[in-house]
Write a structure and sequence with these properties.
The complex is a heterodimer of chains A (505) and B (263).
Chain A (H helix, E strand, L loop, with lengths): L93 E13 L13 E11 L7 E14 L6 H4 E15 L2 E8 L28 H5 L5 E9 L3 E8 L20 H4 L4 E8 L6 E9 L4 E9 L4 E12 L2 H5 L7 H6 L7 E12 L3 H4 L3 E11 L5 H13 L4 H14 L6 E13 L2 E10 L4 E12 L3 E11 L11 E12 L1
Antiparallel strand pairs in A: 1-2, 1-18, 2-3, 3-4, 4-5, 5-6, 6-7, 7-8, 8-9, 9-10, 10-11, 11-12, 12-13, 13-14, 14-15, 15-16, 16-17, 17-18
Chain B lengths: L2 H26 L2 H12 L5 E11 L2 E14 L6 E9 L7 E5 L2 E6 L4 E5 L11 H4 L4 H4 E12 L5 E11 L8 E7 L5 E7 L5 E13 L2 E11 L5 E12 L19
Antiparallel strand pairs in B: 1-2, 1-13, 2-3, 3-4, 4-5, 5-6, 7-8, 8-9, 9-10, 10-11, 11-12, 12-13
Helix pairs in contact in B: 1-2
Chain lengths: 505, 263
């Protein structure tokens, strides 16, 4: 059953041709679909168009009957399905266990890197998550994970290789029917795009593991920020105001990077920040949100909007502009790059108002093409003014190949883009194809990042299969391709695969 | 009071008392009236929540089940329902939400905190689709005509006298282009529906049954849905635990989805 695109996490869209489904003349066959007494038509080939005897009698499936039964207001009355016993019925949070094995292949990139990466990694997770109500007004949000991992060429020590991630732990309280306050560590996440979210302010340095190139998957593996926020909700709008306190932290403590229990608040709460998020309610067809963000010397403003164009097509846009350093300037704060190289890479040393944009569409093929198959395609264009232009990318390769700059200083620029979860290049195209239930309960997802300035690509294909009722097994494969002097063709880790299993209780 | 006066008074009183029902009966005889009456029976016309079990069968054998809770309230603007669907089971999908506000559909995954804008077409995916668990009054989305009266075999395999209504979509974004709906002539209960795509393909056939008293009306608590493309695929929607709920309008915004807790 594909109720709800359950794995809609992987989404989609693509161009055009929706009009084919619009304005089609009403069917002449419908009047023939009479309501006569006919035997059940639940066997044999699919019926229908023009078939007067199709599906005239209800299929023979268990029913609740019509008399002598409890009324429909009774909980667990007759007619409810017998559910499998689950630990979930005993505790207010969902528990899940999982394991994964990743294999990676490497090549010598044109700009050498000294970073030694493992050929394989293995990880086991135990996660507890949920958002239950304690009372009508009070709720608890939790997303905790205990993980342990190992890799080749690395000795395993449980205290060094294991970690407890408090990704989220917060309380919310409904002060009135129109005002809710929340405090704690929360994964504050914004944005309507699926491949890059300019308005997702707190994504910087938030990942605790990076198992996938898929941004949607990565959001599940990031640390929330410690915030206090209030949500005002009326019939006309939802207004969210929040404050992220900057924490004065020192290394080696549970607040930062202590073994096992270090929570990385130095990463998520390095400075004070405030934000406002306004969402009007009830606009016909259009959904929109306006964002204001303030961090010392780095104020920003953004917006997102989405709307339906036709039955099969959704368009969306997301924009954020902020006074900030470019990726090169931020990476080069210590001055590791020679001045000439830094200049060629566009460094100015100054903050500027830089824009980031994601424009996209989601398209689902019409029913007449694919029946009720769950297929969708998403295509997005990403613009990152803080990234490198085509000329600056050339300069990056020139500096690396000629030795004009230390490889470490050059690679730190790319590492920063990765840490900030922003495109390295100013221009990027993203495509996602999702085909749920491609075979029984197997779901296919394929994503591709394209760098249009150098025709390089990075693709990842995943197959997820449901196992038993609450289990899942996944296989994903990725590969990067392109000229050696290109964004993705120059990656050291150019291919790999991952097998993972999980089970929820 | 004279006899004549009393008769006039009695006549006036009778008219006063019976006029509403006479008007209702006259209204109900029209296609619009029949459809509105069927809508009122299909859905409580108040803010409410209901647990829905979706049980999938293939060739008569159960293959899957999902449990959701739907929260529905009327939109002040047009009277159509706003709907929030919360997945309860299976556990691996617990907490995922589907929001419908007119043309606006959002899917929310609590694991990634991601809200994804869906196309109206994606309401139709699957056998018992998103469109089926979303509460909607047909009368607001479709123009209706009365095609005739005929006997129909209902969900309990009983033959009943019925009106046959043809519903035609008034917009490009309804989940179905046309619906043939059979409504019981005796009590306005919806008995059966055939749901068609824009090209005229039969997508689904639904039978309403399991009639029980629910929130002041006898309503169907079970819908049997056969897939028009593959009739061996059948889904049964079973509704239970209907209850009135106070549902603020602001719940039906994508910004509210991360704050949703099951009441």
């Amino acid at each position: 059953m594909t109720f709800l695109p359950l794995i809609l996490r992987r989404f989609v869209a693509a161009p055009v041709v929706i009009c084919a489904t619009m304005g089609v003349a009403p069917p002449t066959t419908m009047a023939q679909s009479g309501a006569t007494d006919m035997p059940p038509v639940l066997e044999g080939p699919p019926v229908l168009e023009g078939s007067p005897n199709a599906l005239d009698v209800v299929p023979d499936v268990p029913g609740v009957g019509t008399s002598g039964e409890p009324d429909g207001e009774t909980r667990q009355g007759a007619g409810t399905v017998a559910h499998q016993p689950s630990l979930r019925a005993l505790i207010p949070f969902r528990l899940s266990v999982g394991g994964s094995l990743a294999l990676n292949a490497y090549r010598n990139p044109v700009v050498p890197t000294s970073r030694a990466e493992p050929d394989w990694t293995q990880r086991f997770d135990l996660r507890m998550s949920g958002h239950p109500s304690v009372t009508d007004r009070l709720g608890v949000l939790a997303n905790l994970r205990l993980r342990t991992s190992m890799a080749d060429n690395s000795d395993y020590a449980i205290d060094r290789n294991s970690h407890l991630d408090i990704q989220e732990l917060a309380v919310d309280y409904r002060l009135t029917d129109w005002l809710t306050v929340e405090a704690g560590r929360i994964n504050v996440r914004n944005g309507v795009a699926t491949g890059f979210n300019p308005t997702d302010w707190f994504k910087n340095d938030s990942l605790v593991v990076a198992d996938s190139f898929d941004v949607v998957d990565r959001r599940e593996d990031r640390l929330g920020v410690l915030v206090a926020q209030a949500a005002l909700h009326t019939d006309d709008l939802v207004l969210i105001a929040g404050w992220r306190p900057g924490l004065d932290t020192s290394s080696g403590t549970w607040l930062t990077d202590a073994d096992v229990i270090g929570q990385g608040f130095d990463r998520t709460n390095s400075t004070d920040a405030g934000y406002l998020k306004l969402t009007p309610v009830g606009w016909e067809n259009i959904s929109s949100t306006i964002n204001l963000f303030y961090e010392e010397d780095q104020p920003g403003v953004g917006a997102e909007v989405s709307g339906v164009v036709s039955e099969s097509l959704v368009l969306f846009a997301e924009w954020f502009g902020q006074w900030r350093h470019s990726i090169v300037d931020e990476s080069n704060r210590s001055g590791a790059l020679p001045k000439a190289v830094a200049s060629n890479l566009g460094a100015t040393g100054q903050r500027a108002f830089l824009n980031q944009v994601a424009l996209g569409l989601t398209w689902s093929p019409p029913t007449d093409w694919v029946g009720t198959e769950d297929i969708s395609l998403t295509a997005e264009y990403h613009y990152n003014q803080a990234g490198l232009s085509g000329e600056e990318l050339d300069a990056w390769f020139d500096a690396g190949v000629s030795g004009a700059a230390a490889p470490g200083a050059l690679w730190s620029i790319r590492a920063l883009a990765s840490t900030r979860q922003e495109p390295l290049s100013q221009h990027q195209v993203f495509v996602r194809l999702t085909y749920n239930d491609i075979v029984d309960d197997v779901n296919l997802s394929a994503i591709t990042f394209v760098s249009p300035v150098d025709a390089s690509v990075l693709s990842e294909v995943s197959l997820d299969a449901e196992v038993f009722t609450n289990g899942q097994i996944s296989l994903s494969v990725f590969a990067a391709a392109g000229p050696e002097r290109s964004v993705f063709g120059s990656l050291s880790n150019n291919s790999g695969c991952k097998l993972s299993v999980s089970y929820s209780f | 009071m004279t006899t004549t006066s009393f008769k006039r008074f009695a006549l006036a009183l009778m008219i006063l008392v019976t006029a509403p029902s006479l008007l209702t009966a006259a209204h109900a005889a029209t296609a619009e009236g029949i459809l509105e009456a069927a809508d009122v029976i299909r859905n409580p016309q108040m803010a409410f929540a209901v647990d829905v079990d979706l049980i999938a069968y293939e060739d008569g054998r159960q293959t899957d089940s999902t449990r959701v809770t739907t929260f529905s309230r009327k939109d002040n603007r047009d009277g159509q329902f706003l709907t929030l669907v919360h997945i309860n089971e299976p556990v691996r999908d617990e907490g995922k939400l589907l929001l419908r506000d007119g043309n606006i559909l959002w899917f929310y995954d609590p694991a990634s905190k991601a809200s994804v804008r869906m196309s109206p077409r994606q309401r139709l995916l699957g056998n018992a689709s998103n469109g089926d668990v979303i509460t909607a009054n047909f009368a607001l989305d479709y123009t209706v005509s009365l095609e005739g009266e005929e006997d129909v075999v209902d969900g309990d395999r009983q033959t009943r006298p019925a009106y046959r209504l043809r519903l035609v979509s008034q917009s490009d974004i309804t989940p179905y282009q046309e619906i043939l709906l059979w409504v019981d002539r005796n009590n306005s209960r919806p008995l059966k529906g055939q749901f068609f795509s824009r090209s005229g393909r039969l997508l689904k056939v639904a039978w309403y049954r399991g009639w029980k008293p629910v929130l002041g009306e006898t309503r169907p608590t079970e819908v049997v849905i056969a897939d028009g493309f593959d009739p061996s695929q059948v889904t049964v929607m079973r509704m239970s635990n209907y209850r009135p709920e106070d549902l603020p309008l602001s719940w039906f915004s994508n910004s509210w989805l991360p704050r949703f807790r099951t009441p």
